[in-house]
Amino acid sequence: MQEKLLQNWEKKSGERVKEYKKFLHRANKNVVLRQLPDLNEQAFEKIDCLQCANCCKNYSPRFTPPDIKRISKFLGMKEGDFKDTYLRVDEDGDNVTKTKPCPFLGDDNYCSIYDVRPTDCVRFPYMDDDFMLKRQPLVLKNISFCPITYYVIEKLIEVERGK
Q1: Residues 107, 146: one domain?
Q2: pTM here?
């Protein structure tokens, strides 16, 4: 994982928040969207999520009604029992896990419901489409704990500078 760009990424991401905000605010949508698929793929080749799992350890995805139905069925539980056992409603009205880390995260960083995981988990870190331009505050938060988000943003900035 230790490409030079990724060394001390947590510290560097904290120091560059203002630059990321400026970049996201002025980014040329078409240029960014053309680059995202390749950069996202590069990031996943260099970074092993199982070595990190920061997203599962520190945050919760939203559990939509279809997610709840699918996961409950997989676990052999009634939807109400699943919600009572694992979920709470947050300040935005979303169903999220009651606990951190995620109750489905194993000690080995594997997800026990991986095949039926919430859609938010499937799509995370949302760096392969225009989400990053539409939901900039969330992307800025993700940069602070997700090395893939950090990598993609840094590479986009490098390309913009002509490196």
Answers
A1: no
A2: 0.88
H or E segment at 69?
helix 65-75
d(CA 55, CA 47): 14
User: From first to last of its 163 residues, what are the pLDDT tens digits of the chain?
Assistant: 457 888 899 999 999 999 999 999 888 888 898 999 999 999 999 999 999 999 999 999 999 999 999 999 999 999 999 999 999 999 999 999 999 999 999 999 999 999 999 999 999 998 877 888 888 888 999 999 999 999 999 999 998 887 5
In a domain, 90, yes or no: yes
Question: What is the number of domains present in the chain?
Answer: 2
| Distance separating alpha carbons of residues 158 and 141, to the nearest angstrom | 20
In 21-123, DSSP assigns E strands to 87-89, 95-97
| Tokens read off for 53 | 């799992």
* Structural domain that includes position 66: 62-116
The Cα–Cα gap between 99 and 110 comes to 17
Residue 47 lies in a domain: yes
Helical packing angle, 147-161 and 29-46, nearest 10°? 130
Residue 2 maps to a domain: no
